[in-house]
Design goal:
By secondary structure, the chain is α+β, with helices and mostly antiparallel strands. The chain folds into 2 domains: 84 residues, Sandwich (ATP Synthase, domain 1), CATH 2.60.15.10; 56 residues, no CATH class. It is 26% helix and 40% strand. It contains 3 helices and 12 strands. Helix 2 crosses helix 3. The chain starts with a strand and ends in a 5-residue tail after the last helix.
């Protein structure tokens, strides 16, 4: 029985890693998967998380994105959108990116919030950002920023109302 297996990690930028390893632990949809040499053949989906690669008794940590995993008895092939070894991650840049993402999330309404506003059983007054042409009945809507503002105000009315929608 072989003591190693070939690990290949491929991203859109190219091959990130291609070496013989003792073991690899992957973040799968059902949880962490430990893959040793002579593993049963498997194809699975990988979720964003941390991959642990054991080589020569040392662990290498790799941040990964979504992807696909193919396992054979002597090979693990991973096709992913992101794979960055932990020692190459700039923590300051990562924190800055996280803060920018959180700010964007705070600005956006979720699909559920938009659906709740649209599905409300009691009628809401015509928003101030929409007007209709009296002759044709066509509705003219102002720019997206104003529509978002209107949805927020309608959502706050919905949340504060005592009637179930």
């Amino acid at each position: 029985m072989a003591n190693t297996l070939k690990l290949e990690i491929v991203t859109p930028e190219g091959t990130v890693y291609s070496e013989d390893v003792e073991m690899v632990t992957l973040p799968g949809v059902a949880g962490q998967m430990g893959i040793y040499p002579q593993h049963v053949p498997l194809i699975s989906q990988m979720v964003p998380g941390e991959m642990i690669v054991r080589k020569d008794g040392r662990d290498l940590f790799v941040a990964t994105g979504e992807g696909l995993i193919e396992v054979t008895a002597n090979r693990v092939a991973i096709l992913t959108d992101l794979a960055v070894p932990a020692d190459r991650i700039d923590e300051a840049k990562a924190e800055e990116a996280r803060q920018r993402a959180e700010a964007r999330l705070r600005e956006k309404l979720s699909d559920e919030q938009v659906a709740a506003v649209n599905a409300c059983a009691h009628p809401l007054p015509r928003p101030s950002c929409a007007s209709s042409d009296a002759d044709t009945g066509n509705v003219h809507v102002k720019p997206r920023r104003l529509r978002r503002k209107m949805l927020r105000s309608a959502l706050s009315r919905l949340v504060n109302c005592s009637v179930d929608c």
